[in-house]
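Bumping with the actual sequence this time:
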Amino acid sequence: MNWKLLLSILVVCACLMSSSYTMLIPFLPVYLINELNASSDNVSMWSGACFAVTFAISAFAAPLWGKLSDRIGKKPMVIRAAFLLSVSYFIGGIVKTPEQMFLMRAFQGFAAGLWPALLVLTSAYVPKNRLGISMGLMQSSMILGQVAGPLLGGLLSNLVGMRNSFFIGSSVLMFITLCAVFIIKEPDTKEEKTKKAKEDSAIKEILSNKNILSLLIVVFLCNFVLLQIQPIVALYVDKLTNHADNAVLITGLILSLGGLAGAIASPLWGRFGQRAGFAKSLVLALTFAGSFMLVQAVPDDVKYFALTQFLVGLGFSGIFPLANSILVTNTRDNNRGQAFGILFSSQMLGGALGPVIGGVMVTLISFKSVYIISGIILLFCAVFLNKRKQKFEK
């Protein structure tokens, strides 16, 4: 299959996958109150539980799906994840209680893995000299979906109701499933299979690679930072605007600025990484994002905060596609599914811990402390990787 055609299809699938998620899940607290009869006293508890359980289960399921990807093929894992996610969204549209929604989100965590499956398929098809730009385009398409999703979700909620929005999301994932079944072809890996190591030693081989371990630590900390901040942005903006009536709208615009920056910059980071080296570029992206994250703690004016949000987005958008590219260049094809599964698991663990720690810090210290510590973590990751960057490029 022509790699440019495949990449175009996967870019569209990544955007649809991302938008179908973000048009539903950010509105989960509203859904719990309006449709599932959660009380205002316990909606925060149910919302937090529903968010956390998906991350927690995904962290343990991802390596399993990665191993199956290496064993039975990359295309079947795309079909598996897209179909099961479609089922989960359909169930989300018929649940009646918060307890049932919790179980649906748990099943969604088990079903998850479409994003790493798409990345594994991308890495198997694209030429090595196009790896950086390809990973950047995939990241950019996912960010575009994250920007468009909440806007579509709000519009659909008003037009057809939130329950029907879940059914629409299910249909989108089923469309991706059908694309995978009838259009996408399994990459030819016969040559690699002749060199295949024993499966029992694959995970041990991956985890014994110090480059991969370093990458797992960085990805864990970066997703920890990202999910530590996301839940408090609306509250921070509300404070900066002195509880203005349009604070929610302003928050949406500010978040869209960060997403827009990411959509623009991700392919550029990938191209730069292809030329200058992925590890060196990742150090630069971490330094850029960490520096402006620290600056975000300074302004007491929402306009300056919006500007810094855009600048942080420019830096942050390079982190994950560059990390994915490093993973590809430091693993063999027959182990790559498991490698991406472990990387995704590391991200999910960071995502599960981030909102909890961020909420505690806001409660006990201040909003600004979250941005200061997040910036320090990113700069630490930059220093940590800078010491190993030459080993990554070997």
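The tokens above came from a reply further down the thread. Confidence is low (pLDDT under 50) at residues 190-198.
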